[in-house]
Prior knowledge:
By secondary structure, this protein is of the alpha+beta class. 36% of the residues lie in helices and 21% in strands. The protein has helices spanning 2-14, 16-27, 39-55, 131-151, 174-180, 230-233, 240-249, 283-292, 298-302, 308-315, 325-333, 374-392, 416-429, 444-452, 477-496; strands at 59-63, 67-70, 73-76, 80-85, 93-99, 119-120, 125-127, 158-164, 191-194, 206-211, 213-222, 228-229, 337-344, 355-356, 359-368, 397-406, 409-410, 434-438, 456-458, 474-476.
Amino acid sequence: MSDIYEKISKYISDNEKNYIQRLAEVVAIPSVSAEAARRPDVVRMGEWLQAEMKKLGVSVEARHPGKQTLEGKELDLPPIVLGSYGTDPNKKTVLVYGHYDVQPAFKSDGWNTDPWTLTEDDKGKLLGRGSTDDKAPVISWLWVIEAHQKLGIDLPINLKMCFEGMEESGSEGLDDLIHQEANGYFKGVDCVCISDNYWLGTNKPCLTYGLRGVSYFFLTVSGPGKDLHSGVFGGTVHEPMTDLFHLMSKLVSPDGKILVPGIYDDVAPVTGIDQPARYPISSYAQEANALLGTDAEDALYADLDFTLSDIYGAIESKSTIFDTEKEVLMARWRNPSLSLHGVEGAHYSTGCKTVIPAKVIGKFSIRTVPDQDPERVTKLVKDYVQAEFKKLKSKNTVTVECAHAGKWWVADVNHWNFVAASKAVRKVFDATPDFTREGGSIPVTLTFQEALNKNVLLLPMGRSDDGAHSINEKIDKLNYIEGIKLLSTYLHEISVVDVQA
């Protein structure tokens, strides 16, 4: 296996320029699922994937999950691209997932470069929307197959692929497909691997076993039948913007505390040895808990490659709420949070505009953790907002809608899937990976785990400072190229790992 690893590793290194050029191709496709005008581009990105997969001999199916209404238009949902490579019953079968849609991006948002043109800077950073989230990881699975073919090396596992185009907009249609095909297309899968998250810091790879959930809300306040002149009507009407700002100020405090009553009631208590299944931790931490008792959750954070400098670098400031590594990580991983995202319908461009908006929509989300239930969270939010609105005695109207809700997820790190991935990290990066949870949400992770009853692993390619969803999103060239090697090595380790261990 060592000789095979060296051959594949050299081939990947030798083809670095080609891989970067291919990444540039897909970054140039503005596959923004949240914008109706970009829907043809999302479809085009899905077609690009299908064409490349077919060139490699992958058996491809495009599933069309239905329609959606977006910006008042009825649109076809982008295809869910399914691929199958290899059907040897003597080999393990790995299912890999990724998404080919991306977040919106405009140069005017503050990008240093055109977001749709992959640009390499003098530090080896490859900047472009979707570069790290999630286009580099998705196409890297194809480069793994290609490398094996070029070298005449048999891929040691059967590979199934599931690539969607709606992850950034709630993964509409995907859950239904997974449940429908659990005993169909996905039958026979032994484990699942997802590369759609990031290292804890910037120096050391990690394996991720937990994610927070996310519930996204629209808070709408409506009043006059049309926008009004503030000089003529200011002081004479209940203004929707005033009501909205008051309500949104009641959701979360400046120190990050969620103000919705009851929201913390279902948060699982901080524990150690008594709940290892719910919160899998490293062997080091387990030993510490056994010796020191259930108050030793500090051990979970003690041996992680993470410093405050990492988060300062990622946010480009020192404006963290907490001043210790443990508190920062607990706030990100195991505690819920509420973030305010924006206001639709308000004046937001440069200059002065003295208008009273007739309707405004406040947008916010709650990141949920074990053991919070999304339906209960939604009820708590709606009841609280309505109660606070009544206190205003306003003649406007208010509605609260949960646009989508994904549940949190936790996996078993002692499973052979994680064992194989850990060995692959050590081989490629000569480092023992951190075992981490993540503050972000990938709802399909839980769906795969529950529908297929198989272990799901998150194997990140990018770093914590990649800026996914933000301006100047990037993936470091090293992470991209070494990441291709990691995905390949992971599949080889899966092929030989002891499933009984």
